[in-house]
Amino acid sequence: MTEPLTPGEERLRRQAAPESDIAAATRTLVVGPYLTRAAERSARNDETPRSIEARLDEAVGLAAAIELDVTQAISVQIQRIRPSTYLGKGRVEEIAGLIAAEDIGLVVADCALSPVQQRNLEKAWGAKVIDRTGLILEIFGRRASTREGTLQVEHAHLAYQKSRLVRSWTHLERQRGGFGFLGGPGETQIEADRRQIQERMTKIERDLDSVTRTRGLHRKSRARVPYPIVALVGYTNAGKSTLFNALTKAEVKAQDMLFATLDPTARATRLPHGETVILSDTVGFISDLPTSLIAAFRATLEDVIEADILLHVRDVSHGDTEAQREDVDEVLRELGIEANADRIIEVWNKADLLHEGERTRLANLGKQNGGAKPVLVSALTGEGLDALAASIEARVAKARSTFAVELGPEEGAALNWLYENAEVLDRRSEEGGAMRLAIRIAPEKEPRFLNRFESARRIGTPTS
């Protein structure tokens, strides 16, 4: 159960409506200043560089996620990054002319700008400028709904603002007088603002520690049940929430929009042979996500770190699906999870958008993966979901033993216990009403099972 928002946090949420009105009325230009392929490979050692078209489309999608009125989107190829304005002087002047002609009020730069670059571009263009980090923070601020999510967003926002305070003040020469015995010339306005921001960040960190401890208690209570945890991870807009809804019959918000899900959601669902698992939907990953944001959402991603199985959901209909896979793998490595870990199942989603030739190509690719065969599904139509459930069940089964059990016709209570505490893989009736069953059971339940069914015969051992 999520903790309710405080009155102040609820007030921030209510402010989203007027923010939407302002965003819809703001003529916006999206600029993608991208290094050339050769320069990017040299700078990032990127084996699978993302296409410029896909990167610009993604930037427009991010802007649309907070309902900005994007009037135009342009890409600008650069050989190197300029320390003062990111772009070269000629490009800055060219874009300034476009901004004036189109009456642009906001420019979204699909890159990470330093405070100096951001300030210089605003002066040159006469318009508000936000970079990729600022835009993602705006989306997070609009979408977070739980107390934990709201606190994490505010902390990341404050850290971002702290480095950019120099942009916000034109009266930095002003000083406040000393307070009592402190004496001295006093502190400048900028120092006071930084101090206030740091004090707020420290308080948020304490609150987040409390929330994290609460989540830890919830996790311990789940461990006592216990049910395997299956967490969905993947690039933003890969279809995780739609798949989550399809597997659990839940109604989590699922839209064709970047970062539609920010707060973690967990539901119980049953596998084909009766085993219950906890399915956890998580925030989507994205390329060039700043480390500060990953750190801010680490508590949200704790279910990913602790999960027994990870479903890496990929949009295989997307032109940059391989580049997106590498971005997700990189974030997982930062969380201490190797991309080839045995607990990861690749789910190739949006099969309904593939033509027959592409299906054949992907099927051949899947065969080349050996034991780690991906599962092709369509969360929208339901195609492949049975195969996915079977794959999850097979992965859970690797850590479990199987037993042969014989029951008499009068042992109805014992049969009921097996159905509630184990997976009944096979059941055959004998003459006179006796039953022969094959069951699979979790290691932590084995002692109780063997104590109750002393004649049970082990027929399979864990393979993990």
From TrEMBL:
One annotated GO molecular function: GTP binding
Cell compartment(s), UniProt: Cytoplasm
Co-factor requirement: Mg(2+)
Binding site for GTP: 234-241, 259-263, 281-284, 349-352, 378-380
InterPro entries on file: G_HFLX_dom (IPR030394), GTP-bd (IPR006073), GTP-bd_M (IPR032305), GTPase_HflX (IPR016496), GTPase_HflX_N (IPR025121), GTPase_HflX_N_sf (IPR042108), HflX_C (IPR045498), P-loop_NTPase (IPR027417)
Alphabetically ordered keywords of this record: Coiled coil, Cytoplasm, GTP-binding, Magnesium, Metal-binding, Nucleotide-binding
Binding-site residues, Mg(2+): S241, T261
UniProt key word Nucleotide-binding: yes
UniProt keyword annotation of Nucleotide-binding present: yes
Coiled coil feature spans: 187-214
Domain Hflx-type G: start-end pairs: 228-400
Any one of the GO CC terms: cytoplasm
Pfam families: GTP-bdg_M, GTP-bdg_N, HflX_C, MMR_HSR1
HAMAP family with a match to the protein in the record: GTPase_HflX
PANTHER family with a match to the protein in the record: GTP-BINDING PROTEIN 6-RELATED (PTHR10229:SF0), GTP-BINDING PROTEIN HFLX (PTHR10229)
Stated role: GTPase that associates with the 50S ribosomal subunit and may have a role during protein synthesis or ribosome biogenesis.
Protein family (similarity comment): Belongs to the TRAFAC class OBG-HflX-like GTPase superfamily. HflX GTPase family.
Subunit structure: Monomer. Associates with the 50S ribosomal subunit.
Protein name: GTPase HflX
Species in which this protein is naturally found: Methylobacterium gnaphalii
Top-level taxonomy: Bacteria, Pseudomonadati, Pseudomonadota, Alphaproteobacteria, Hyphomicrobiales
